Amino acid sequence: MLKSFTSTAFSGLRTVSQQQVRCIQVSARSLNVKDDSAPKAKRTVVSSAPEGTVLKGINYMKDGKDPVALADDAYPEWLWEINDPEVRNARIADPLDKKHHKEARRQAIKADNFIRDKKT
Amino acid sequence: MSKKAPAAAASLLRLVVPAGKATPSPPIGPALGQRGVKSMDFCKQFNDRTKNVDLGTPLPVIITVKGDRTFTFVTKSPPTSFFLKRAAGIEKGATNIGKDHPFVGKVNLKQIYEIAKIKQADEGMGHLSLKGICSGVVGSARSMGIEVVA
C-alpha cells in the first residue's frame, strides 16, 4: 500500500499538501506492513459442517433451496479467523493496530465510570 | 423511522412486513394513512412483489411517500436475527446473554457465510466487505445468545 510519492509530489501545490496529509495518516500503518514471506500456519480449524451438508434456514424464497456446504478450502481464509479469539487477541495486543487503541480506550472509559459511579 | 418533512419533500417510512401478508390495520394502516396513502394499494403491490418469497417471512421495507401522496418502496432482505434463529433451529433468541448464561443455539461459520452473502445484496451494504458483513452477523449471533462454531 505504500505509494510512490515522487511522481505526484511536484504536480502542484494542492496535491503536494494532500500527499503530505496522506503521509501522516499512512505512516503508522506503513510500519505495520505484514511480512507475508513467512509461510502461513496451516489452518487447524475444521468445520462442523463437512462438504455436502445442507445449511438449513438460509433460503427464504419459495422456489429456492437451502445452500449446500462446500469443502472447507472453498471458503475464503478469513472466514476461519473471524471466530478465532487468538486472532482477535493478537490484534488487541499489537500497539499499531486500531483495535488495540479502541480496546484501551474502552477499558479507560470503564475504569473512569467505575470511579465516578460511587454508589456504595 | 424517519419523517423528513419540509412541506413538499418526501417522507420515509420503515416497516417490517411479513411477505405476502400485508394489510393488517395496526402496523401498516395508520402509518400509511397518516401520510395520505391508501394502505390497500401498498399491500397489493407489496404482496405482488413478494410472491416468490416464503409466506410470512419478515421483510423490512422502506416506503418513500412523496408530497403528492404517491409512493415507492424498496424491500430488503429479512433481518439477520430471522436467519440466525432459523439456522440455529430456535424460535426466540436468548433472554439473557453473557458468561453466566448458556447459549440457546448454535450456528456454524458456513451458515454465517451464506447469510452474509444474502445480506450483501442489499443496497445499504455496498461499501462493506463480505468479511465485514460476516463479522456483523457473528456479532448479531452473539447478542442473541447463539454460539458460533466452526
Main attributes of the structure:
heterodimer, A: mainly alpha, 4 helices, 42% helix, elongated, B: 150 residues, alpha+beta, 3-stranded antiparallel β-sheet, 19% strand, ribosomal protein (chain B), ribonucleoprotein (chain B), Ribosomal_uL11 (chain B)
Verbal overview:
The complex is a heterodimer of chains A (120) and B (150). Chain A has 4 helices and no strands. The relative contact order of chain A is 0.08. In chain A, 42% of the residues lie in helices and 0% in strands. Chain A is an all-alpha fold and 120 residues long. The model of chain A has no long low-confidence stretch (mean pLDDT 76). Chain B is of the alpha+beta class. In chain B, the strands form 2 sheets. Chain B has a 3-stranded antiparallel β-sheet, covered by helices on one side. The longest helix of chain B has 14 residues, at 130-143. The radius of gyration of chain B is 18 Å and the shape is elongated. The A-B interface holds A 45-49, 53, 55-58, 60-63, 67, 69-70, 75-76, 78-80, 82-83 and B 51-54, 57, 78, 83, 85-89, 108-115, 118, 130-131, 134-135, 138, 148-150. Chain A: Keywords: Mitochondrion, Ribonucleoprotein, Ribosomal protein, Transit peptide. Chain A: Residues 98-108 have a biased composition (Basic residues). Chain A: Belongs to the mitochondrion-specific ribosomal protein mL54 family. Chain A: InterPro entries: Ribosomal_mL54.
